[in-house]
Protein 1
Amino acid sequence: MSSTQIEGHKWRFFRSGGFDQVALSSGDDLRNLAQLDPKLWTVLNCPTTGLEFDGRTAALLDSDGDGQIRVPEILAAVQWACSRVVDADLYFEEPGLPLDAIVDNDAEGAALKQTASRILSYLNKDPRSVLQVSDFADMSALFAPGNLNGDGIVTAALSSDPEVQTLLGEIIATQGPAADRSGTDGVSTDTLAAFFAQAASVVAWHEAGAADAASILPLGDSTAAAAQVFQQLRAKVDDYFMRCQLAAFDTRASEVLNPAPAVYSALATRVIASDDADVAALPLAAIAAEKVLPLRDGLNPAWAAAVQALHSTVIVPLLGKRDSLSATDWQAISEQLSAWLAWQSARPATDVHGLGVERLREILASTGQQQVAALIADDLTATGFVTHVEGVERLVRFQRDLVTLLQNFVTLSDFYRGQKKAIFQVGTLYLNQRSCELVLRVNDMARHVTMAPFSGCYLVYCQCERKGEAPMAIVAALTGGNVDELMVAGRNGIFYDRKGRDWRATVTKVVEQHVSLRQAFWSPYRRIASFVETQLRNFAASRDKDIEAKTTTGVSVSAPAPGVPAFDIAKFAGIFAAFGLAAGALGTALAAVMSSLFSLAWWQMPLVVAAVALVISGPAMTMAYMTLRRRNLGPLLDANSWAVNTRARINAPFGASMTGVASLPAGASRSLRDPFAEKKRPWKLWLVLLVIALALVAAWQLGFLPL
């Protein structure tokens, strides 16, 4: 809808920067912002970074997360913000959101108000106090271990029952911690269910063992130790009896199944230890058909100790004392321990065994599972709290920051009214006895140096450094003062950011533009003076070089070297004659000019001087006027990914306010006596008097003065 179609709201505009800007000063302006034609907005989008604006607030405004804040996102934020408070004028007041300012006539509003009330209680604040952005800086204060936070994970701090607290600790110890939003270890629904399932399986496993104790525990409490020794030798003994059975099957196998002589030859050449791997790989005893396993003599030395442990721990308790073990005896032992081994293979793989079966029975018999589940259910009821905490934070941040953004987006009132800096102004640059207030951060130097010159501003790019901080690039617009003596390479200044921190600023690039008409007027004369100075310096340097060359070669009375011309008096006289002719011509021209000048009436002389000055300075002043007239903030912001919707001019008065030039304080006194000032010499006075005398003589000779 265009501005002529707006109904029901009277907009107020102010003119600044050469264009009309809407004045946003009341809640009614905010509520009707959607009716304002976007063509009347100053900016159509801006980046979320590189600004002197709260990054968290910018992220909340950037609903699609693309790093840009656009008009629809602004309108959506304003509409939501106005609908959530009783009076939208609150956004123009000092930062702080009172509890009674939140609208609670719908479900969302009621939830926000209830959440805000809980936040105040969690922060130990009076319910009548206001919420500030700083209250959300440390979320751990809102999601403390003793507070329900809606994540479905409970900590020991949520229960006052010591037994429940102990149970929670045991669950965490055996199942691993679940990360609570408070940062404390807790228990989730999954870990609770897994713990009790494992506890039940462990108890059931123990009960199964107790129910069949006669077969499972043939040696009673010593069964576990005996089974361990049995398992250690089981494969080796099985191997021995299988080899003996093969030897019985075929007598030719005996020789092959026993170690070959070459094996012993290899062992004979080195030191053999009792735990030697090659020795341990040999059979328990010599292989023969239907042979029993000796338990004392004839054993492989690497296994002798283990066989003795098997004899004392397993064989004697089950079969009685003996000197050898037959295959039948070994089968009987295996059958008696098979029930134990089968029971052990069914042992649940869980850390809850460490709690002991009696503690597990106690836990299963208690109501601990139901109590922890109830705590989790209570915590889950606070899921809405977490969601609405962000809503309350958003509302608090909008109350503080929304109008600030609008005054740099819908309008540029912060920039043009000068009461506070705009969000794109990052600080103040002090350089060459001036302070520059229009300073922007440069994120993409290549893009910036391409677009920024279209602003028509004299730009100074600087690299800023500060200990402990990442370097940053800035650009400052010089909009006042004299810039003729500004140098590029190595020129240093001081940059103060918005936090008051000082940075060392080094000039890296200058984009030269006219700064004022006064500078443009004098620029031709400065260029002429600079040209003359340069020529004189070059001439003096060349003469000095010639003199130095002549003095270093020494004086010689010999004849001139071949190829070196002798001094020609006639040529020398010709040079002097040429100088005389030039001086005469110059004098004639000067006399003609003076004659023409003195032929005018007295009131015409100033006009001639002004005309000459205009001819000399006119082109430069015309170019300066055209440059200053097109001086525009837009390209500077566009180079930083803004979309400026108007021509935001920086005219001469406003530009002068953006660049401060050094001046003595009001009321300051000054002594003009300089003890190191150069001594005055009268030659300047004599020169002026000589010029006046020559002018009077010329006027008398031309008849302009009576005798």
Protein 2
Amino acid sequence: MNEPEQETKMPDRVAEPVVRRRRRLPTVWLIPLVATVIGVWLAFNAFVTQGPSIVITFPNADGLEAGRTKIKCKEVEIGKVKSIRLSRDQSKVEVTAELTRDASDLLSEHSRFWIVRARVSTSGVSGLGTLLSGAYISMDPGEPGKSSRRFEGLENPPTVISHQDGQLFTLRAEKLGSMSIGSPVYFRQIPVGEVAGYDLEPDGKSVSIKVFVRAPYDKLVHKDTRFWNVGGVDVTLDSNGIRMSSDSMIDLLLGGVAFENPVSLESSEPAPKNQVFALYASHDRIYEKVYLDRRYYVVDFNESVRGLTRGASVEFRGIKIGQVEDLKLELQTQKLEVHVPVLIAIEPERLTLLGGGTASMDKVVEQLIARGLRAQLKMGSLLTSSLFVDLDFYPQAPPRTLGQYGKYREIPTTPSTMGALLSNLTSFLDKLQKLPLEDIANELKTSIPALREALQEATELIKHLDKETAPKAEATLAQAQSALAAMEKVLKSDSPLQRDLQRTLDEFTKASRALRDLADSLQRNPETLIWGKGKEQEP
């Protein structure tokens, strides 16, 4: 039996698939997304690579532009100027700049900045490339030191930059002359360095000059090296005539420094860095001793100082120990006295002190004054009538002490030889003027008639004596003849008196010959009367 077929029930509704569409991001949104990513990356990169911000002050902003002017170190860009503004007191310009992160290690308190632009100076022409590219700020890192973010810009580019092979030396002179920063330094007329800078000493009495000698020439500078100024013309007048010398026309206009090492038996070592040397005025004077230590005193004269000028010598027993610096005329209104105070400079290094001791210069001078040290005017030359100040001992002078004249100590004086002579002559004339010359003349007038009468009486007396004394005179004549005979015996050639006379005549002959030689010598060299035999010029 067949089972009944079961009917398959069909569902009432067939299930249909549901399709859901996702909304797709528009392509246009990709652009800001990428920009955001790039911005974040740039911000992160800027934060990572951002360097320090510094402020540099300059006298003016000539050639600088915010956002364009670059900062370079050895021609490598390390930053850019961001803003420029005036300082609060409006005396300078403040330049704010941002450096790269790598440049932060270059900054220190010794770093230097200056503007590179086209310049024409005594040392040459520089910065011509900035005529097309524009000015930029250059940096010299300098020596390591404390960190700093504010700097004072240089007005001129430095001559010597850090890490440059060579050495700096200091020269000291009374004046700068024709030199300037960048002036050359020569050795055997080969340029081996430059003048790096100059400044006044703290006391204002000398100039300190910095010179840089490049390697390997810096090893040529020894402890006894002599430096001299090659600028200008050196004129010398001596017995050989007039001599004029100058290294070159360029040196004449621009100035410069030269040096050489003296030849000596002793070996000399290379000079250490920043050693101080004396700068001589010319090559002919490099072996003259230069004394930079000076002590100032005042000597007060109450007599004429005609012939005494600035620069005149101050001598002690014929040896120069200083010079005259200044002099002036003073009138004391209360006492109506005229004085001439003279400022002199004594160089202690010219004196060799023996026996040890550490007494000060004023103490030594005070002790010498107690022993009779005085200042006196003396004539240096009869031809020019020039005077100089001479210091010497005068034990007979009245006691004095080291006085005070303003801020200077005062050395007492004594009248000059000419002044003393004029004083004595004036005293004699005063005494002569006090004599009763009119009374003496009147007495002489009354005495002349009496004198005439006395002469007449004397004449009559002589006549009377002739009559009475004639016989006696004959007897006296006979006695005289006998005396002459006795003298004849004495004056014979073999007599002792004759021999003594002969020896005396020989000595007179020698003396006359010496006088004749002296006259001949004076006729050939009359200047020995002025200069003396020791300074007699060669014929």
